[in-house]
Amino acid sequence: MKRIPPRRWAIALMSFAAMPLAWAALRPAMGAVANQQLLKFGAQLIAHAPVEAQARKLVINGQKVTAVTQTQGKRLEQLLAEKASACAQDVFVSERVGAEAFAMCLRVHPDVALWPTLLAAVDLAPQGSRVVKHIAYTYFVARPSGVAVIDVFANDVNPFAFVTPPDDAKHVAADDVAALPRPQGARLGFSLLEEGQPYGFTVFTHGELDPARNLADLQQRLRARGFTVKAAATEGIATSDGQRLWMSRDDLWGVLTTFEDAQGTVTAFAVSAGDAPAAAQRGDTK
């Protein structure tokens, strides 16, 4: 059964494209601190990712990221040596602390100095500068069953993929879930999809309808697309005018949440696949 990646895993992956900038900033003065952060990043990823020996190709605000989890029968030091050998022509950093270790390989675009470019690239954020040609990160943890490994890698990395777009930009450079309608007048502000799958998590901002009208409009348009919709509890929504509903169609199901903030109405779609929870199966709301 396919499903959207666990939310905490997705949050951890959101920092992946910015990793080279953070490491470059910390490394010269606080190398140990930088390495500790890279270890924590891997521990967070593997804590919420099933070790399933298959690749998951995610697209986060247009940045393609591949994550592969597996269990290896080799010794930890042997796996680290293999990573170092494979990265001999690039920038390589690794560290081992007890049963845990990480390895990171960075390849910048040709004729580009690593430190000045990474640290100065913040000034190029509106243009979405892609200074890193390839990044590969691996986290290892030794367990009784073998060494659990998670590999995360991406090409032509945009360190600013997860920065809010400038005010004059209508949308982030990404797609939304194809089956769903877009809120009227809204901008796509965040998108997490799995390549080739019909589900994902998207957030729209700057909507022109208030939450109640926005919900009514989206209900009508979802029904026109064959969805069953049902009102859902609003616990946890930050504002009192927040609205939420369940939606389901065939093997797709999800939750729509809408509320108002200083920049207009926000709408979040979280869509999964497989068997829907009982609350989403109790019929259409009127």
Shape: elongated
Overall structural class, as computed from helix and strand content, comes to: alpha+beta
Ranges with pLDDT <50 over ≥5 residues?
A: 1-6, 121-129
**Span of the ends, CA to CA:** 31 Å
Task: Give the strand tally.
Answer: 12
Mean pLDDT across the residues is 76
Strand fraction: 35-45%
Rounded radius of gyration (Å): 21 Å
Amount of helix: 10-25%
Major sheet: size, sense and barrel closure?
A: 12 strands, antiparallel
Number of helices: 6
- Strands side by side in the biggest sheet: 3-4-5-6-2-1-7-8-12-11-10-9
Q: What is the succession of H and E elements?
A: HHHEEHEEHEEEEHEEEE
Task: Describe the SSE topology.
Blueprint: H1 7-14, H2 19-26, H3 31-47, E1 54-60, E2 63-72, H4 76-86, E3 91-97, E4 100-108, H5 114-120, E5 132-143, E6 146-157, E7 187-194, E8 200-207, H6 211-224, E9 228-231, E10 243-249, E11 252-261, E12 264-273
Antiparallel strand pairs: 1-2, 1-7, 2-6, 3-4, 4-5, 5-6, 7-8, 8-12, 9-10, 10-11, 11-12
Helix pairs in contact: 1-3, 2-3, 2-5
